[in-house]
Specification:
With 619 residues, this protein is α+β, with helices and mostly antiparallel strands. 34% of the residues lie in helices and 27% in strands. It has a domain of 237 residues.
Length: 619
């Protein structure tokens, strides 16, 4: 095994050995070895890259389906981990992989795709639909880690190429100059440009990067929270890059700002953490899996006090997560640790995420965290496949998780032209589903519906309920379902479901192992053409409540049916009221701007209060 230089030993201390007590270097080494072993099995020596199977399912940005391909980002991370793992053979393979990845970066400053890579060797950036400029941020950050931690172990010629690759990636990030509301990329690109400028001695780039970080802090200061709110996937990207900054940057003024943002990011997660289920309570702006699983970065950040897995599981390759966790000094601020570790008393949390100009309401989430379940919703949202605009968990910390996810499905995929407007107080939600045009089909912007026309066989609102026992007690009719979930109880009613001349109907069925409550607006044996201009009113008004414990759903149904519900329509708007909750929203298919302007929400006759996560300013 090759030895480390003094500089590399110091880097290892900064990135790994400084982890809190309860997480040892032994864990870090096991993570790296397990990650490298997994990736070794996928290495293709013919291309000097990893090889992956690309499935048949729809995925935006890439046109590749049902084939083998060679990913650029995963392969570069593999090169980094090979260096972390140590040994002459691994080093030699890593050097060859780095050479390979650098050779396929777009390095022409005149190119539209300057500084980026395609997702796959087989599909360069110009052939994607469209290219993903985030690859400058992701691969640029990995090149920086290779340089900062292992630069002295690289041959001189390759090291110069790595620095050139960093330059190209950093200037691609600068050229793009992404909006600071794109939280994870705003932070990751700040790391690439700040660390790149420091490494390259580029004062001009450094000035841009410092101003970018300040602008990001100012963006957070508008509401006190993050535009890309409560995302289990991208919170890690954000915190990882803030942690990278804390361990690589030297400017004390910049580091002071990084520390403030880092604390705010952890505060944001901590306020939404549901200790009983070990889940990030909804609503979630973006995620790839509703079940957070066993995030080792959180386990490490809490010094092993929140144990998702064991060292034996890591060593045997049974724990999920990136090997890079081993190289980062993740630390949750100690004052926030109790929110992750102790269930506490039932509480409600409101938090404003995105600002708006009156009369449009800012985007705000409401989360009820009870002892055995949590229920969260956003007041303005949509049903993009990555959104969790209305979400609940129950059933303890077992995996796989037991949860409720509200979706709107066109045929067999989440429909982004469906919108959610909701008002929540504690465990009760009053909501309205309506539709936008223009709008997207599978993606909000990359897959637009053309001319307001599309083919569809089925359009339905769904409550996905994985983990509900097969013998669960259910009471349902054409509009209502009351379910004993096993540890929690759910009551849901489609108070009104209209799609032109059609009236929606509720049904409950098992689909692919999960219980699904559906409200169908359209269901035909063959696809039919839907023209938004011809539909007329199209909306679902619903009420939903959850309670802790088990019991007869009949009694739950009787109790909630007795509660007052009122509906009145005036032209293209509807006014809804249930218990103390009231909202107004659109019934016609209109632009999202018009639907947003039509929306209002109140509790006990007063506007829902807007709550900041923190009053402390970051900029």
């Amino acid at each position: 095994m090759s030895t480390l230089t003094r500089r590399e030993c110091a880097g290892s201390v900064l990135f790994a050995l400084a982890a809190p007590s309860g997480w040892s270097r032994e864990w870090d080494q096991a993570l790296i070895q397990a990650a490298v072993a997994r990736q070794d099995a996928a290495f293709d020596p013919a291309e000097t890259m990893l090889r992956r199977s690309v499935g048949a399912e729809y995925r935006y940005h890439t046109n590749l389906r049902s084939r083998q391909a060679h990913p650029t980002r995963d392969t570069l991370e593999y090169a980094f981990l090979l260096l972390e793992a140590g040994g002459d053979q691994r080093r030699e393979r890593s050097l060859a992989v780095i050479e390979r990845i650098l050779a396929i970066q777009e390095t022409d400053p005149q190119s539209k795709w300057y500084g980026i890579w395609g997702y796959y060797l087989e599909e360069p950036a110009p052939k994607m639909s469209p290219a993903d400029w985030n690859w400058a941020d992701f691969n640029g950050s990995m090149l920086l880690l290779i340089e900062y931690r292992h630069g002295s172990r690289l041959p001189a010629a390759l090291r110069e190429k790595v620095r050139a690759g960093i330059h190209h990636a950093a200037y691609s990030v600068r050229r793009r100059n992404v909006a600071m509301t794109y939280t994870n990329i705003a932070v990751q690109g700040s790391f690439v440009t700040l660390a790149g400028a420091q490494l390259l001695g580029d004062a001009d780039l450094g000035g841009y990067a410092a101003d970018r970080l300040r602008r990001f802090a100012q963006t957070v200061d508008v509401t006190g929270s993050f535009a890309e709110y409560n995302s289990p996937s991208y919170a890690n990207v954000t915190i990882a890059n803030l942690t990278r900054m804390k361990r690589t940057l030297k400017d004390p003024e910049i580091l002071a700002r990084v520390d403030k943002i880092h604390h705010r990011a952890w505060l944001h997660l901590a306020r939404h953490w549901h200790a009983a289920t070990r889940q990030l309570a909804g609503p979630l702006s973006r995620c790839y899996s509703t079940d957070i699983g066993g995030p080792l970065w959180i386990q490490k950040a809490l010094g092993g006090r929140l144990a998702f897995t064991t060292l034996a599981d890591v060593r045997q390759g049974r724990a999920s997560g990136s090997g890079e966790v081993a190289t980062l000094d993740y630390r949750c601020p100690e004052a926030l640790a109790p929110l992750f570790l102790e269930p506490g008393q039932p509480r409600q949390h409101r938090e404003t995420f995105l600002p708006a100009e009156p009369p449009v309401r800012p985007v705000q989430g409401t989360t009820w965290l009870d002892r055995g379940f949590c229920l969260g919703s956003v007041n303005r949202g949509d049903f993009w496949v990555q959104r969790r605009s209305l979400l609940a968990y129950w059933g303890g910390a077992a995996r796989p998780a037991r949860y409720l996810q509200m979706r709107f499905i066109k045929d067999d995929y989440d429909f982004t032209s469906a919108l959610l407007y909701a008002v929540q107080e504690r465990n009760c939600i009053l909501g309205l589903i309506n539709f936008r045009t223009p709008g997207g089909d599978k993606h909000p912007s990359l897959d637009p519906i053309q001319n307001g026309e599309f083919q569809a066989r089925r359009l339905r609102l769904c409550l996905d309920l994985p983990g509900v026992p097969e013998k669960a007690r259910i009471v349902s009719d054409a509009s209502t379902a009351a379910i004993d979930l096993g540890g929690a109880r759910l009551w849901f009613r489609a108070q009104r479901a209209v799609f032109g001349e059609r009236t929606g109907r509720l049904s409950v069925a098992r689909e692919e192992g999960r219980l699904v409550v559906s409200v169908d607006l359209l269901r035909e044996p063959e696809p039919r053409l839907v023209r938004w201009s011809e539909i007329g009113p199209a909306y679902i008004a619903f009420t939903l409540a959850m309670e802790e414990g088990s019991g007869a759903p009949e009694a739950l149904d009787r109790r909630y049916r007795r509660l007052r519900f009122e509906e009145s329509r005036e032209g293209p708007t509807v006014k809804l009221a249930w218990q103390s909750l009231a909202l107004t929203g659109g019934t016609a298919v209109r632009s999202v701007a018009e639907q947003d302007r039509a929306f209002s929400e109140s509790i006990n006759g007063a506007p829902v209060p807007l709550v900041r996560l923190s009053e402390e300013r970051l900029a």
